[in-house]
Structure formats: structure tokens, C-alpha cells
Write a structure and sequence with these properties.
The mean pLDDT is about 95. This protein is of the alpha/beta class. About 35% of the residues lie in helices and about 15% in strands. The chain folds into four domains: about 70 residues, Ubiquitin-like (UB roll) (Roll); about 120 residues, Alpha-Beta Plaits (2-Layer Sandwich), CATH 3.30.70.20; about 120 residues, Rossmann fold (3-Layer(aba) Sandwich), CATH 3.40.50.1780; about 220 residues, Fe-only Hydrogenase (Larger Subunit), Chain L, domain 3. It binds 2 iron/2 sulfur/6 carbonyl/1 water inorganic cluster (HC0).
């Protein structure tokens, strides 16, 4: 270990650590606009300059490794002057419109400038050209605000393996965007919003649906229902200063009522329903292949993550036959709100407006897909990210932290613990196996201490695999006796691509695969509160597992509202009515 001092504070630091790591360990905050915990330092923004005893020039703290005996100063006049100059130069070309920017009040550049005492940009010169790219349903780029930190480029290439954004040109003329100055809709962007999640300013944002939702709430002709995705309850509190991983389900429901939604429902209901449909599809395909020797595509690959579907359509079209035909829970919910729910309440479906709250920007894109209107109306009319819902709660003057808990409405607000864990990587797989195992063997999924938990598919490992022995099979599924159900899970599209290539090459042959677009699954979605680090991901995951463990029912097949839906409306899982409303197809 190396002994160093930072601003006089002694620290013991591992060799290879950067000054930025060491400062963080010593409790000294050094500002940075380009650093990312998932990537090697880039030293692009130069905001983290510090003075190192004996070094002639100031050093970028992120890119300078510590050495034994190092003495670092972070607050000298020289450091303050240099940082101020760097930030002033950024502000001089930043076409920021701070007063009206959605990031106003939570912009990293603004915070750092304020910390340096910069209350205006003092360097005259041209501002960046302000091109607004609104060509995709989910993401809006405002090029004039870009500070060229390259975080978006690095997450798009390194984590997602997509590569829709590049630095182009030199000096002042440098731009960050799709190649050859194209707009996002012209390239293979999957609209996952991971770029939005890491952008320090307002240069790349979710396309706001806030006005759309306020307009609907203001319209007395409309019956406005809202559904909330599993991952929202584990993260929304962060927008109000609560620690990551605080479960705020009850406060969220109360806040939604205060916003005057006519009914507050849960995407979790549709997640339970998804398990019934997807589990049925899995068993049908296993029967065809293992019992009847027919040539059906295996593995079954989950379909609920729209960024993943977009990626599959553009990068792995040959694998589309393996992808489950189930719509995502968001879309299943919408289709039922405008049929089953509208009919049972005697409401004209044309008057039902479905708003979703999702941790994901690609859900905005999914809702706009032309095939997503099997009721004759768009399944979903507006999609708010977690951040947008927080913004509306702030706009309404609600003190979120002080709200009393409330409960979701019935019947589309009833759910089991299996649905809660959909929001964490491995959760859809675990939920599906809870139900499939019990249907096939007549016994609950075995887990440590009988806890129904499939530990190998939990956690942040990029690709996870498990084998589940099928023992004590009920007569109908006797052909599975002695088989091992082999499953695999990937999250983050680079990991997904790695797993899919192994499947294509035949080096692994799972029966069932879960893919989630974003690192950590939906708890790490592009619409979640900033920042999302691995520590934050783990805290949010813990919250969902706790929510699951606290539920009296933890298997989707036990959901009484889903059972009633099949009894009263759909018939049985996989029925013609279920296929008409709840299933879809893909476009290569
Ligand atoms: Fe997800 Fe979903 S779990 S994709 O990650 O399946 O966005 O939270 O809502 O639809 O339920 C996101 C989260 C959802 C859907 C569910 C699935």
C-alpha cells in the first residue's frame, strides 16, 4: 500500500489507484465531468486538475496514479484558477439556456461552475450550433449543450456494444453524435437511454411526455390510469433525497393520487400475467422439441426489454424466432386497460388514457410501435421516466418524503413478489421458474431455506447460468422427468451479444434465456435517477428482493386477479384471445 496525503489528510491507498480514487477514499471531493466508474480514465474534461508536490504541471486526478509518499493539494490558488478557466471555457461555448433546461438544478456543469463561484461565462466567442435531434420517439439531442465529455460515447460502445455515437471533427468544431452528422433515427440506436443516464448536462435527454400527461389529466373527458414499473418503487425516492434502495411503493401511489390519476395500477400485475403467457410458451416449445421431436426454436428468449428487442431486430435478426412472442408487461397492461378494464367499468375505451411510469427510455419507443394497438387503440398513450414523474411531483408542490403510504387500485394493481423482481437482472427468469417449476413438478421452486430464490441468476455478473433439475414431474409433463432445465441471463447489450454468440456457436445450449438491455436490468434503466453506480444498482436490487420477500404471494400463478382475468376474459394462457391482445411479432 502507498501512504499519501491529500490536502494534509493521510491515506493508505492501493498501488494503481488514481488520485481521484484516493481522494474519494479520503473524503475529498474532486469535481469531474468525464469520469465513469466503469471505464478507464480519459482525462477529457480537465476539471479534476490537482497540484502534486514536485510536479511542474497540474495533473488530471482521474488519470494520474498515486505513488508512495505523494502529496496532493486540491484547493490551491493555482488549482482554483485552472479549474475556473477550464469551466469558463466550457461555458463559453455551451449553448445552455440554463433557465429553461430540464437539467436546471441538477446539471453537473452548473453545480461545478457554482462551486467555483462562476456566475456567468466571461469568455466571449461563438456558441455551439444548436441542432435539436428529435427523430426518435425516446431520445432528444440538443447538440449546443454538449460539452464533449464522451461519457455517452463510452457507454454506447463499451457497455452496450451499439456504437451509435462518435466524436467527430477537431477543436471547437468537434461534435459528438451519429456518424457523418446523421440524426439518431438514421443509425442503429436502440434508444436504451444509457447515454442519457450518464450525460452530465442536458445535451441528450429523454423526450418528455410530461405535457402529454398533464394535458390528459386536465381533460375531463378522459379516464386517465397510470401503471408503474417494478423498478420505480426502488429508485423514485432518490429524486427526493432518500438513500438508494429505499422502498417507496406506498408514497409513490399516494403521490400519483395527488396528481389526480383516476386509477393507480401496477405493471407488476401484467408482469405476473407475462409469466403465465411466457411460461406457457416455454412449456409448449419444450414439449414440441423434447417430447414430439419437432423442430421448434430453442432457447426461448425473453421479450420484455424493448432496448433488447430493438438490438435483436438490428443486430441479431436471425435469432428473432427464438424470442418469445409475448408483449412486454407495459404493453400487456395497456391492451387490458382498454379492453378488460374498460368493459368491466363500462368506460368507452376511446376515453381511457394509459400513462406508464418506466425506468426506461426505450419504453417510449415501444409504446409508439405501430403494432402495439391490438385493442384498436394504442395500448399506451404516454410514458414517463422515473425522473419525469419526480419532476411532475415537484411541479405539483408535493412533499414526497412526508407522504403517507397508499395502496394500488384493484384489479390491475394486484401483484405477487415474483413481479417485483422483474426489475432486477435475473428476476424475470426467477419469476418464470417459480411458476414453471411448480406447474411441472407440483412442488415449489427449491431455494436456500425453502425461500423460492434462484441465487445463481441474481447479482451483477454480466452473464449468469444455472441448471435446474426437474424431479417428481406431474403426469402431464412426465417427459421432462430427469431433465435439467438450463437457463442463462445477460444484462447490458455487450454481455447479451457475448451470450448470443455462444448460443449461435453451440458452445452452450440453454432452454430459456433472459436478456435485459440495461446493466443491472431495469433498476439501472436509462430513465432512472442519476447517478446509477454499481453500489446504487445493488441497493435498488436489494429493495426489490425485500419487496418480494414481504409479499404473501410470491408466484405469478397465485395472483388472484390474474386468475380472475383468465376466468372472466381470456380463457386460458396461450388462448386465441390472449394471443390477440398480449402477443406480438418482430421486424428484422
Ligand atoms: Fe422493466 Fe418490465 S421489468 S421491462 O425491466 O418484463 O422498463 O421495472 O416495467 O414492461 O414488468 C422496464 C422495469 C418493466 C415491462 C415489467 C418487464
Amino acid at each position: 500500500m502507498y501512504d499519501i496525503t491529500i490536502d494534509g489528510i493521510a491515506a493508505r491507498v492501493r498501488p494503481g489507484a488514481s488520485i481521484l480514487d484516493a481522494a474519494s477514499q479520503a473524503g475529498v471531493v474532486i469535481p469531474t465531468l468525464c469520469n465513469m466508474e466503469t471505464h478507464r480514465p480519459l482525462g477529457a474534461c480537465r476539471v479534476c486538475l490537482v497540484e502534486v508536490e514536485g510536479a511542474r504541471a497540474l495533473q488530471a486526478a482521474c488519470a494520474t496514479p498515486v505513488f508512495d509518499g505523494m502529496q496532493v493539494r486540491t484547493t490551491t490558488r493555482r488549482v482554483r484558477t485552472a479549474r475556473t478557466m477550464v469551466v469558463d471555457l466550457l461555458l463559453s461555448e455551451h449553448n445552455g439556456e440554463c433557465g429553461t433546461c430540464f437539467r436546471n438544478g441538477e446539471c453537473e456543469l452548473q453545480t461545478i461552475a457554482a462551486g467555483l463561484g462562476l456566475d456567468r461565462d466571461t469568455i466571449p466567442g461563438p456558441k455551439l450550433p444548436a441542432h435539436i435531434d428529435e427523430t426518435t420517439p425516446a431520445i432528444t439531442r440538443a447538440t449546443g449543450k454538449c460539452i464533449k465529455c464522451r461519457r455517452c460515447v463510452r457507454v454506447c460502445h463499451g457497455i452496450q456494444g451499439v456504437g451509435a455515437l462518435f466524436p467527430q471533427g477537431r477543436g471547437f468544431a468537434t461534435t459528438i453524435g451519429p456518424a457523418f452528422g446523421a440524426d439518431l433515427a438514421e443509425v442503429a440506436c436502440v434508444q436504451c437511454g444509457q447515454c442519457v443516464a450518464v450525460c452530465p448536462v442536458g445535451a441528450i435527454m429523454e423526450t418528455s411526455h410530461i405535457d402529454r400527461v398533464w394535458d390528459a389529466l386536465d381533460d375531463p373527458q378522459l379516464h386517465v390510469v397510470v401503471q408503474t414499473a417494478p423498478a420505480i418503487r426502488a429508485a423514485l425516492g432518490e429524486c427526493f433525497g432518500l438513500p438508494a434502495g429505499t422502498r417507496v411503493t406506498g408514497k409513490m401511489v399516494r403521490a400519483l393520487r395527488r396528481l389526480h390519476f383516476d386509477a393507480v395500477f401496477d405493471t407488476d400485475f401484467a408482469a405476473d400475467l407475462t409469466i403465465m403467457e411466457e411460461g406457457t410458451e416455454l412449456l409448449q416449445r419444450l414439449t414440441a422439441v423434447l417430447r414430439d421431436g419437432r423442430d421448434e426454436p430453442l432457447p426461448v428468449i425473453t421479450s420484455c426489454s424493448p432496448g433488447w428487442i430493438n438490438f435483436a431486430e438490428q443486430y441479431f435478426p436471425q435469432l428473432l424466432p427464438m424470442v418469445s412472442s409475448c408483449k412486454s408487461p407495459q404493453q400487456m397492461f395497456g391492451a387490458l386497460a382498454k379492453t378488460y378494464y374498460a368493459e368491466s367499468r363500462g368506460i368507452d375505451p376511446a376515453r381511457v388514457f394509459v400513462a406508464s411510469v418506466m425506468p426506461c427510455t426505450a419504453k417510449k419507443y415501444e409504446a409508439m410501435r405501430p403494432e402495439m394497438q391490438s385493442s384498436g387503440y394504442p395500448d399506451v398513450d404516454a410514458v414517463l421516466t422515473t425522473r419525469e414523474l419526480a419532476h411532475m411531483i415537484h411541479q405539483a408542490g408535493i412533499t414526497f418524503e412526508q407522504l403517507e403510504d397508499d395502496h394500488m387500485d384493484e384489479p390491475l394493481g394486484i401483484s405477487t413478489g415474483a413481479a417485483d423482481i422483474f426489475g432486477a437482472t435475473g428476476g424475470v427468469m426467477e419469476a418464470a421458474l417459480r411458476t414453471v417449476h411448480e406447474l411441472v413438478t407440483g412442488k415449489p421452486l427449491p431455494g436456500p431455506g425453502g425461500r423460492l430464490e434462484l441465487v445463481p441468476v441474481r447479482g451483477l455478473e454480466g452473464v449468469k447460468q444455472a441448471k435446474l433439475p426437474i424431479q417428481g414431474t406431474v403426469a402431464e409433463w412426465g417427459f421432462l422427468e430427469g431433465e435439467e432445465l438450463s437457463v442463462a441471463v445477460a444484462h447490458g447489450l455487450s454481455n447479451a451479444a457475448r451470450l448470443l454468440q455462444e448460443i449461435q456457436h453451440g458452445s452452450i445450449s440453454p432452454h430459456f434465456v433472459e436478456i435485459m438491455c440495461c446493466p443491472g436490468g431495469c433498476i439501472g434503466g436509462g430513465g432512472q435517477p442519476r447517478p446509477t453506480t454499481d453500489a446504487v444498482r445493488l441497493a435498488r436490487m436489494r429493495a426489490l428482493y425485500d419487496e418480494d420477500a414481504a409479499k404473501p404471494l410470491r408466484g405469478s400463478h397465485q395472483n388472484p386477479a390474474v386468475q380472475a382475468l383468465y376466468r372472466e376474459f381470456l380463457g386460458e394462457p396461450g388462448s386465441a384471445a390472449a394471443h390477440r391482445l398480449l402477443h406480438t411479432s418482430y421486424t428484422a
